TrEMBL record:
Organism annotation: Cellulomonas triticagri
Keyword Cell cycle among record annotations: no
Residue ranges with Low complexity bias: 153-162
Coiled coil (UniProt feature): none
Protein name: Deoxyuridine 5'-triphosphate nucleotidohydrolase
């Protein structure tokens, strides 16, 4: 698939995939930034794109920034609609409560994943068909601990027999 791209800053690279088969193309920041503990910052990427109708670009956090520095994206995933032509910007949140995160121009800050989109026709009705889950919402599938009976079976400890 071809995506038209406008580079708003000649000094930043075009988004690219680090490895064959990767879903996310790396986005970089075009500015230096320090994000204090618990704070957020909106960083410009220096690019704008034109997606074909029927597609969306989703801006996902980078797993390394999240795992090593506690940096995530406030509205993850961010949505870049097919009709949007402005600069893609990423609002990062430093969840670390002790250490600031220092980012430099050209640092990879997010991943852009392009997907097909289905548009729904919403039909109003007085009742909805029954389902096994029903109206069960947050926490309705069990607790988060394996012992709480939520979803997956408990995982045996290393070396334990089944």
């Amino acid at each position: 698939m071809t995506v038209l791209l406008r580079r708003l800053d000649e000094g930043v690279p075009v988004p690219g995939y680090a490895h064959p088969g990767d879903a996310g193309a790396d986005l970089v920041t075009r500015v230096d930034a320090t994000i204090a503990p618990g704070e957020r910052a909106t960083l410009p990427t220096g690019i704008s794109i034109a997606l074909p109708e029927g597609f969306v670009a989703l801006v996902h956090p980078r797993s390394g920034l999240a795992a090593k520095h506690g940096v995530t994206i406030v509205n993850a995933p961010g949505t870049v609609d097919a009709g949007y032509r402005g600069e893609i910007a990423v609002t990062l949140l430093n969840t670390d409560l002790r250490e600031p995160v220092v980012l430099h121009r050209g640092d990879r800050i997010a991943q852009l994943v392009i997907q097909r989109v289905e548009r729904a026709l919403f039909v109003e009705t007085e009742t909805l068909p029954e389902s096994v889950r029903g109206a069960g919402g947050f926490g309705s599938s069990g607790g988060w601990r394996a012992a709480d009976g939520g979803g997956a079976p408990a995982v045996p400890a290393p070396g334990a027999s089944r």
